[in-house]
TrEMBL record:
Domain of life: Bacteria
Stated name of the protein: Phosphodiesterase
Signal peptide extent: 1-24
Pfam families reported in the protein's UniProt record: Phosphodiest
Keyword terms of this UniProt record: Signal
GO molecular function annotations of the record: hydrolase activity
Record carries keyword Signal: yes
Organism name: Aliidiomarina halalkaliphila
Gene3D superfamilies reported for this sequence: Alkaline Phosphatase, subunit A
Length: 666
């Protein structure tokens, strides 16, 4: 596809100059070089991508696009994520070029600011822009004349709060905030996030969960083309009231769904056998209905349904629908255009429904594979709609920079990857094999997602930058820092079992760090001059935490002020961090009996950024990049690198460095 919009100004100047020359005296011929086209780039974060994990668990036949990028792109040997290695903090670092000690996005949950208006136990979402104090790359690109798009990116498209650590927002921060407000108003900046406003979650409807009413007067019922008498029902959720009609010829095998009892305009679901065919050579999610547009007070919603099963007499059924979101966009016309083009984007496949048995028994509860096949159809639909959204940005909007995202790998790895970990005391080889199979099939869809973006980039010889937010590892034991603090005499609970901040010197509000309850915080009790002494007490207590065999479970302790290279601490972070031994994760419970104990088996990523399994990737493919390997990089190097490739300045709060010359030098 020819990319022309960035050349319009230069072409107009050439035309004007040619006209002037034609009307003037002949001039000497001067050699000239054509104006170079503006480079284009796709920056995509594949959630939970870690190259060594991928290479050791997935074959090139399963994920050829990833092997293509790793083998023939220019990559660093891993990338240091945010600490703790969490999604919100990692993406903030990618978009802004700074870690949480600067951006105030220190985790998925953060200390809200300013400190004097909140207690040390307060917590706020790191996905929200309210705490953020840094400019993302799409705003910087927009100010420098590029057309920039953000496709379901974190901390957007709301306005960063730029709060002070203590007191009112400074004049400097207010200016930075106003700059972003004006940046989002620019026509050449289109940023959206559907995660901000989920109206209705995914659901499996059955005959017992709907209201049957055979007397509902359906209009245009003759359009249902049925020999059997239709059976009518309704159901209500957060998106509104919906009407259904079961129909068919020899048996009930079709279902019409509408927002009114009318066959006209209804979407039709049919009882197809669960999908078993390979992904290649067919449409993804082909057994889902067409989208039903739903008008909601907060914006347009869409419902797609899949009829997984139905009794011949209509007495029971399994009807699935994915989550329903209002897409938050900084321009209303862009929101409408995206809705019309994609029709029903949703944020995650139905892993939670799968693991709790809504699709049937999963493999780890003795299932026969049917639940896994049903789940995969939801993952297909997620992939299909994410890809459609990317096409809208790249082909319809012709953005110079597309910042994109995909969470599917993270969702499935959280849910089942732990079953493949042989060091788990309850390891089951049969469960491991079935987990490998489902995980492999799901990552094939992640590969389809990446290949789609590579194909888009190749249309215009653009560069694709493949990055991630963190890795993944298995845990079944928990470290509880608040219980440790209580046993060390640094934290107390009141008569109601709540943490008593009037007596507690330190707390862990998120489970990811420990913060001293200084007088900077509302109701804090530790004077600034005593903070270091309290930190020393915390470290001493942490060094005593051991397992049943006397082994330390905290392999390393990090005092934030001693490790600026890790980007820990800062106004919205903690004072002391740690790296757990393998098999452990941390939690914020303050009511358990012991600082160490068992917890459900899970794959997690809220660990130290120094842990190899938490490392993620930074690769450049296409756009003139050749096969190359450079030493390990950092997430904060990504936006400066992409900016230099595009010929623009890095975001103003970035402290990372551009890797462009390194990646291009063989």
């Amino acid at each position: 596809m020819q990319h022309t919009h960035s050349l319009r100004f230069s072409l107009a100047m050439v035309f004007a100059a040619s006209t002037l020359i034609a009307c003037s005296d002949p001039q000497p011929v001067v050699d000239s070089q054509p104006t170079a086209a503006q480079p284009r780039a796709i920056l995509v974060s594949i959630d939970s991508i870690n190259e060594p994990i991928l290479r050791s668990t997935l074959t090139e036949a399963q994920v050829p696009a990833f092997y293509e990028v790793f083998n023939y792109g220019a990559c660093s040997d891993g990338a240091q994520p945010a600490f703790p290695s969490l999604t919100a903090a990692g993406h903030s670092a990618l978009w802004t070029g700074a870690y949480g000690d600067i951006t105030n996005i220190s985790g998925n949950n953060v200390h809200p600011l300013p400190r004097d208006q909140h207690t040390v136990m307060a917590s706020a979402s790191g996905y929200s822009p309210d705490n953020s104090a840094a400019e993302p790359i799409w705003i910087s690109a927009g100010y420098q004349g590029l057309k920039a798009g953000g496709h379901h990116v974190t901390q957007a498209p709301g306005i960063p709060g730029f709060p002070s650590a203590v007191g009112e927002r400074t004049e400097e921060n207010e200016q930075a905030r106003q700059r972003i407000i004006e940046g989002y108003a620019k026509e050449n900046v289109i940023v959206m996030n559907g995660y901000n406003d989920q109206i209705q979650g995914d659901a499996m409807l059955t005959a017992d969960s709907v209201k049957w009413d055979e007397q509902i007067p359906w209009a245009n019922s003759d359009a249902l083309d049925t020999y059997l008498t239709p059976r009518y029902f309704s159901f209500t959720n957060q998106a509104g009231t919906f009407y259904g009609a079961l129909f068919g010829n020899d048996s009930y095998d079709h279902m019409a769904i509408n927002t009114v009892p009318d066959a006209q305009g209804a979407v039709i679901a049919y009882a197809a056998e669960v999908e078993q065919a390979p992904f290649a050579g067919r449409e993804l999610a082909r057994h889902f209905s067409e989208p039903l547009r739903v008008h909601h007070e907060r914006g347009s919603l869409f419902m797609r349904v899949r009829l997984f099963d139905i009794a011949a007499d209509g007495s029971d059924f399994m009807l699935f629908h994915p989550p329903m979101h209002v897409i938050e966009v900084n321009h209303p016309e862009a929101q409408a255009a995206y809705d019309d083009y994609v029709q029903g984007w949703f944020g995650n496949s139905a892993t939670r429904m799968y693991t709790r048995g809504d699709f049937g028994q999963p493999f780890f509860n003795g299932g026969d594979g049917l639940a896994e096949a049903r789940y995969l159809e939801t993952a297909e639909l997620e992939t299909k709609l994410f890809n459609r959204g990317s096409s809208w940005f790249w082909q319809e909007q012709q953005v110079d920079l597309l910042v994109d995202y995909f969470p599917l790998g993270d969702s499935i790895d959280h849910s089942i990857k732990a079953y493949t970990y042989e060091a788990y005391p309850g390891y089951n080889p049969e469960h491991s094999e079935k987990a490998h199979q489902l995980r492999g099939r799901t990552w094939e869809l992640v590969n389809i997602r990446l290949q789609h973006l590579m194909d888009l980039a190749a249309e215009d010889n653009a560069a694709l930058f493949l990055v991630g937010d963190h890795g993944m590892r298995t845990s079944w034991m928990e470290f509880r820092p608040n219980i440790m603090l209580q046993q060390a005499g640094l934290q107390y609970v009141d008569a109601n079992g709540m943490i008593d901040l009037s007596r507690s010197k330190a707390v862990s509000n998120t489970g990811n760090w420990i913060t001293v309850n200084t007088t900077e915080w509302r109701g804090g009790i530790v004077p600034p001059e005593d903070k270091e002494a309290v930190i020393a007490e915390i470290v001493a207590a942490m060094e005593t935490v051991v397992d049943d065999e006397g082994n330390r479970i905290l392999e390393r302790i990090y005092v934030a002020t001693e490790h600026p290279e890790l980007g820990i601490g800062g106004p919205a972070g903690g004072d002391v961090y740690w790296a757990e031994a393998h098999g452990y994760r941390s939690g914020r419970s303050h009511t358990a009996d012991a600082p160490v104990g068992p917890i459900r088996l899970w794959a997690t990523h809220s660990h130290a950024s120094t842990e190899p399994l938490m490392q993620t990737v930074t690769c450049a493919w296409g756009g003139g990049f050749e096969p190359n390997r450079i030493p390990r990089s950092r997430q904060i190097d990504v936006s400066p690198t992409v900016a230099e490739y595009l010929g623009i300045s890095a975001p103003p709060h970035a402290v990372g460095r551009s890797l462009l010359n390194d990646l291009r030098s063989n």
